[in-house]
Write a structure and sequence with these properties.
With 232 residues, the chain is of the alpha/beta class. The chain has a single domain, classed as Alpha-Beta Complex (Spore Coat Polysaccharide Biosynthesis Protein SpsA, Chain A). It has six helices and 16 strands.
């Protein structure tokens, strides 16, 4: 199974930590965050594709072409044109089925294992009421109905407490759909994935553990909870 890791962003909200390294390489307890991810992948993941951009050579120099028996390929996202743009950039390397995760987020290995079992799926974090983020609406069979982004005026009115974690199980049918623009310069992967609902069900896998490393102050929290996510 292939795993695509999105790691191209500039991480401006984590400055000054990201002035010399990309956000997925910010140290957590003295170890690059991305190394925790690679050290805690389920056995089903046999090949890794890392989409790089800002200071991407820092990542490729550190991990090389193979890490812990898994081959690693790097794809340069020349224009930071969103998550859908990142997936499109590595299209030629991708096989029938693959996973996608954010390079700077904390995920449980057990949740990634659950995602491997599905054909099309999104990992959703169940949170307390009032938590911000892209809300997931699902039906009684745990299939996706809608994703309401945080910038959508409807978001605050949606009662769902499920938030999109940026972890996706996809297949190559995804590329049959036109990338959806979310701004003048970016295209969104989840928004593009929603188009697939007209032809395929998309399963929602729930988790109660997920942590997005977004701001410089998140590092303190990350170091406190790292043991809850990763094997040391």
């Amino acid at each position: 199974m292939q795993l695509v890791i999105l790691a191209a962003g500039r991480g401006t909200r984590m400055a000054p930590l990201t002035e010399t390294v990309p956000k997925p390489m910010v140290p957590i307890l003295g170890k690059p965050k991305l190394q925790y991810t690679l050290d805690n992948l389920p056995k089903a993941i046999t090949e890794i594709v890392v989409v790089v951009g800002y200071l991407g050579k820092k990542i490729s120099d550190f991990f090389g072409d193979e890490y812990e028996g898994r081959s690693i390929k790097y794809v340069l996202q020349k224009d930071l044109n969103g998550t859908a743009g990142a997936i499109l950039a590595c299209r030629e390397l991708l096989k029938d089925h693959f996973l996608v995760i954010m390079g700077d987020d904390f995920y449980l290995e057990s949740d990634i294992e659950k995602m491997v079992q599905e054909d099309l799926a999104i990992l959703a974090n169940r949170v307390s009421a009032g938590t911000t983020g892209a809300k997931i609406v699902m039906d009684e069979n745990n299939n996706l109905v809608e994703i309401v982004e945080s910038f959508d005026p409807r978001n605050s009115k949606i009662k769902s407490n499920l938030i999109n974690t940026g972890c996706y199980r996809l297949n190559k049918n995804y590329f049959n759909y036109q990338p959806v623009a979310i701004s003048d310069t970016e295209f969104g992967l989840p928004q593009t994935m929603v188009q697939m609902l007209s032809d395929y069900p998309i399963k929602i896998i729930e988790t109660d553990k997920w942590f997005p490393l977004s701001r410089v102050e998140d590092v303190v929290t990350a170091e406190k909870i790292a043991k809850d996510f990763f094997r040391f």
